[in-house]
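PROTEIN DESIGN WORKSHEET
SECTION A - STRUCTURE
LENGTH: 226
TOKENS:
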């Protein structure tokens, strides 16, 4: 009888362990044998593809006019001095110089070759259909101080339609200056110079870079003194 009791105890312990499915090492195998599908483990997600490199942005070159050598200054050149501002410069002896007051705080000096056409234009005696006057150099003298701004900011605000690369920073007689090209009936070049309480703006019209007046303009600007 004692042998039978021990056998029955072991049987009951084995049955109790079999009721706990979490501890049955052969559960998956039995489920497979019984025809129950066991889901496979999910695969690891693939890493996202690396972003394609952005194509380089091509630089847009702004066409600029090549530098022009100034005309040589010799003993035939004259000197003009503005009595009010003391701005002085040299100019060719075969040029006419006319001074005019454009505003209360601004005056202009007009230079052009001394010939019959220029004199008739200045005297208002050109007859016939309206036409452009002779090519000329104009120097404006504006009594104004750049308060709260810079020369570059002032020029950019005044001038429209000029590309970034077209502005040229330079120095005239120790003063900051900015030059830029213009286009209209003729080609043109403007140089704006900053002086204490004074802005000097010089402009020339020309047909081609080889025109003598274009070279004379460079020599006039480079000869300026204060």
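SECTION B - SEQUENCE
RESIDUE ASSIGNMENT:
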């Amino acid at each position: 009888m004692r042998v039978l009791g021990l056998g029955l105890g072991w049987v009951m312990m084995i049955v109790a362990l079999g009721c706990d499915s979490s501890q049955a090492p052969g559960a998956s195998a039995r489920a497979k044998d019984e025809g129950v599908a066991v889901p496979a483990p999910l695969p690891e997600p693939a890493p996202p593809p690396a972003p394609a490199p952005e194509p380089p942005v091509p630089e847009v070159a702004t066409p600029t006019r090549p530098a022009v050598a100034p005309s040589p200054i010799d003993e035939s050149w004259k000197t003009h001095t503005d009595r009010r501002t003391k701005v002085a410069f040299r100019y060719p002896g075969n040029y006419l110089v006319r001074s005019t007051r454009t505003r209360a705080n601004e005056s202009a000096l007009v230079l052009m070759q001394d010939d019959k056409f220029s004199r008739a234009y200045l005297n208002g005696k050109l007859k016939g259909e309206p036409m452009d006057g002779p090519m000329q150099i104009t120097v404006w003298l504006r009594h104004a101080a750049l308060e709260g701004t810079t020369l570059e900011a002032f020029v950019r605000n005044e001038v429209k339609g000029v590309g970034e690369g077209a502005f040229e920073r330079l120095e005239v007689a120790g003063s900051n200056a900015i030059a830029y090209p213009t286009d209209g009936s003729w080609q043109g070049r403007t140089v704006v110079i900053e002086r204490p309480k004074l802005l000097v703006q010089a402009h020339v019209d020309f047909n081609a870079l080889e025109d003598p007046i274009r070279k004379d303009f460079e020599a006039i600007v480079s000869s300026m003194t204060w």
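SECTION C - NOTES
The chain has two domains: 2-33, 78-222.
The beta strands are 78-81, 88-91, 95-103, 106-113, 137-142, 168-172, 175-183, 187-195, 198-206.
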